[in-house]
Design a protein that fits this description.
Bound molecules: S-adenosylmethionine
CATH topology: Alpha/beta knot
Number of strands: 8
CATH class: Alpha Beta
Distance between the termini: 33 Å
Helix content: 25-40%
Number of helices: 6
Structural class: alpha/beta
Low-confidence stretches: none
Order of helices and strands: EHEHEHEHEHEHEE
Strand order of the largest sheet: 3-2-1-5-4-6
Length: 171
């Protein structure tokens, strides 16, 4: 199963840090790729720098037309929105469906067509919060937490410590 995150509506001047966090969260919580509908090379460069140091095969891509991309995606399409069906109710059904998954998250306001183009509109609780939080919770619940044990095989690796920090680096 491959997991792709589509981040809609990056605002060039305001969202660099947030979009970078969305991408890093996607990577750390087991997604294979993030796709943006707005090209921002600062965001791409930051994510690629993390991948270069910390490993994993995570990809960053830009698309010109998100509608064409969503229509052409052949796996399961899931839009995270506070207006959807609550995660606790739909997760058992979603977890039964094997194959590739596209997870769509918005910025400020998602175009209304998105709601009708997906297989599921899923709410991570019925309160407004953040695309980073929604994505982290959804990805973790989808994979039952196994993504947290993934070996990214990076040049830098953390040796977990009860106290303090230990990082080993390959030359
Ligand atoms: N009113 C918006 C909505 O449709 O959810 C909130 C916008 S929020 C700043 C940006 C993104 O965070 C949303 O597009 C959605 O993907 C995600 N999000 C926020 N709260 C959520 C929730 N309770 N459940 C699922 N996704 C949520």
């Amino acid at each position: 199963m491959s997991i792709i995150v589509l981040r809609l509506g990056h605002r060039f001047a305001r969202d660099k840090r947030l979009s970078t966090h969305v991408a890093l969260t996607s990577r750390a919580f087991g997604a294979d790729k993030i796709v943006f509908d707005v090209q921002d090379s600062d965001v791409k460069d930051s994510i690629e720098a993390v991948c270069e140091s910390w490993g994993g095969g995570f990809q960053v891509e830009y698309i010109k037309n998100w509608k064409t991309f969503v229509k052409g995606f052949s796996g399961l399409k899931i839009h995270l929105t506070m207006y959807g069906l609550n995660l606790n109710g739909v997760l058992p059904e979603i977890r039964k469906l094997k194959g590739d998954k596209l997870i769509i998250i918005g910025g400020q306001k998602v175009p209304s067509e998105v709601y009708g183009m997906v297989d599921y509109n899923v709410a991570v609780g019925g309160q407004p919060h953040s695309e980073v939080a929604a994505l982290a919770v959804f990805l973790d619940r989808l994979q039952d937490g196994v993504e947290l044990d993934k070996d990214f095989k990076g040049r830098n690796r953390i040796i977990p410590q009860a106290r303090g920090k230990k990082v080993v680096s390959d030359e």
